[in-house]
Design brief:
Elements lengths: L28 H14 L7 E7 L5 E7 L7 E6 L3 H8 L2 E8 L4 E11 L2 H10 L2 H9 L9 H14 L10 E15 L7 E8 L2 E7 L2
Antiparallel strand pairs: 1-2, 1-4, 3-6, 4-5, 5-6, 6-7, 7-8
Length: 214
């Protein structure tokens, strides 16, 4: 313990953003998200589309990991191996929560909702847009499975690359999901830890907006 220099109890940042009021927020939370995402990108946040995705299988045990969000027109889209841990958990329990943590600008967005697979045509189109090396890695890797070592996997990647330098078609075990939001919460840091939090929750076809205590 004495060799550990970083003091997690004393590391603090003072938030000094302007107060976030109701009249500054659009009625549609996806419009707010789009504005905040653009703001994060403009501020230089690296990979602002990265989100921590939490899922849980039939046993209820949660697991979180970071994935890249690849679309958000009516839901938050991401792509993965259907046979991975997250894919198996979503088959058992098609619900998830995602968190966008834009720490440099003191903002965070949390999304909760149901998850559905994207149509195969959408997965085909996105897979075709990826670099050849990404296509081959996705086609080759038995994601989340135990392997003896990395050498065999690298060898298969090299062999497939040599045979298909321009990439490969989308494998059946890989594709997209859409997280359909039922709750979207916006958090913005403020002075003295009296943060601003607004929750939008779906009520039929409408969104209900509520301010939450920090």
């Amino acid at each position: 313990m004495s060799d550990r220099q970083f003091d997690v109890r004393r590391d603090r940042i003072r938030y000094e953003l302007a107060r976030l009021d109701d009249d500054q927020l659009a009625d549609d939370p996806l419009d707010i998200f789009a504005s905040w995402l653009e703001g994060a990108a403009a501020a230089g946040v690296r990979e602002p589309n990265a989100m921590v995705l939490a899922t849980a299988g039939a046993d209820g045990a949660p697991r979180a990991r970071t994935v890249l969000m690849r679309g958000y027109s009516d839901g938050f889209e991401f792509f993965t191996n259907y046979e991975s841990t997250k894919g198996r958990q979503l088959d058992e329990n098609p619900r998830a929560s995602a968190c966008f943590a834009w720490l440099p600008i003191h903002r965070q967005v949390i999304v909760e909702g149901l998850v559905e697979r994207l149509p195969s045509e959408a997965s085909d189109a996105y897979f075709a847009s990826r670099p050849a090396e990404s296509q081959i890695a996705s086609a080759t890797s038995p994601q989340s499975q135990v392997i003896d070592g990395i050498d065999g996997l690298l060898r298969r990647v090299e062999e497939l690359t040599a045979a298909n330098p321009d990439g490969v078609p989308r494998p059946e075990h890989w594709g997209g999901y859409r997280l359909m939001p039922q709750v979207i919460e916006f958090w913005q840091g403020n002075v003295g830890r009296v943060h601003d939090r607004f929750r939008f929750r779906r009520d039929g076809e409408q969104w209900v907006r509520e301010r939450l205590a920090p």
